[in-house]
Amino acid sequence: MPVDFFWGLRSLSILYLKKMWPCSDSSIEELYIFKIYIIPFMAIVNLKKRQIECKIVYYGPGRCGKTTNLEYIHKSFKNQVMGEMISIKTDGDRTLFFDFLPMNLGKVRGCDLRVQLYTVPGQVRYSSTRKLVLRGADGVIFVADSLEVRREKNMLSLKDLHQNLKEYDLSIFKVPLVMQFNKRDLDNENIAIMDLKKMEHDLNRQLKVPFFPGSALKGEGVGKTLHGCLKLVMQSVQNELS
Ligand SMILES: Nc1nc2c(ncn2[C@@H]2O[C@H](COP(=O)(O)OP(=O)(O)OP(=O)(O)O)[C@@H](O)[C@H]2O)c(=O)[nH]1
Ligand SMILES: [Mg+2]
């Protein structure tokens, strides 16, 4: 893992935390280190400030539409978005490091719900970056590509998620996870796409997680997918607290 990427990620997150929480630099750093490096898979619940902060990661093969999901959220949920969407280094429309979008989703049981959305780079060669971005995630949205020609890539990417979670001692069966079967709009374009049953059989027959058909390009299913993941994350936070 290149050291400059590691420090870039850290500095960027600290910058954003500073924007979101007006407190001292050192407490921001402590909070960041706490979140990213010490407690993987646990939302920060600050009962004193009545805030819940969680991280959701969009995972999936290259070109499946992860960045497009975030772009749609950025332009369509303006009241909830807390700043600009950050895309760290892109090569054309390919993500090389990650995209980042901070949101404030209002009150949940009297607490402010702040959510950080990230995407991983889907290209096979960025495996270690994917693993790093995944770290500290409270929930994962696996975006699968409905194109018939991407069938194998979907399955390999799910396997890669499984493996990366395992390396953090986490089970894909326990992490709050939902799937989005993206690019359903291509059904009307005479392009070979898989039917939902086939995709469910390929990707979800064992996991049995909630799944949502969608078109990130048109915004269909984008909100529902995020909502579905947040629901699971909130249940898991509640279980942690009780
Ligand atoms: N028709 C259609 N095209 C889509 C949809 N979602 C994304 N695309 C297109 O697919 C291409 C790749 O989308 P991205 O969002 O950049 O894919 P990504 O998953 O972020 O890809 P990586 O960054 O390489 O991992 C772009 O040309 C998008 O416009 C969709 O729902 N329907
Ligand atoms: Mg991308």
Explained architecture:
- Helix 1 (3-20) packs across helix 2 (25-38) and helix 4 (127-134) crosses helix 5.
- The protein contains 7 helices and 8 strands, in the order ααββαβββαβαβαβα.
- By secondary structure, it is of the alpha/beta class.
- The chain has one domain (3-241): P-loop containing nucleotide triphosphate hydrolases (Rossmann fold, 3-Layer(aba) Sandwich), CATH 3.40.50.
- The protein has helices spanning 3-20, 25-38, 66-76, 127-134, 151-167, 196-204, 222-241, and strands spanning 44-46, 51-59, 86-91, 94-108, 111-119, 139-145, 177-182, 211-213.
- Strands 1, 2, 3, 4, 5, 6, 7 and 8 form an 8-stranded mixed beta sheet that branches.
- Guanosine-5'-triphosphate (GTP) is lined by residues 60, 62-68, 93-95, 119, 121-123, 182-183, 185-186, 215-217.
Strand fraction equals 15-25%
Low-confidence stretches: 21-41
Radius of gyration: 17 Å
The small-molecule ligands in this entry are: guanosine-5'-triphosphate, magnesium ion
N-to-C CA distance: 37 Å
Oligomer: single chain
Say what the CATH topology is: Rossmann fold
**Could you state the order of secondary-structure elements as H and E?**
HHEEHEEEHEHEHEH
CATH first level: Alpha Beta
Largest sheet: 8 strands, mixed
Helix percentage: 40-55%
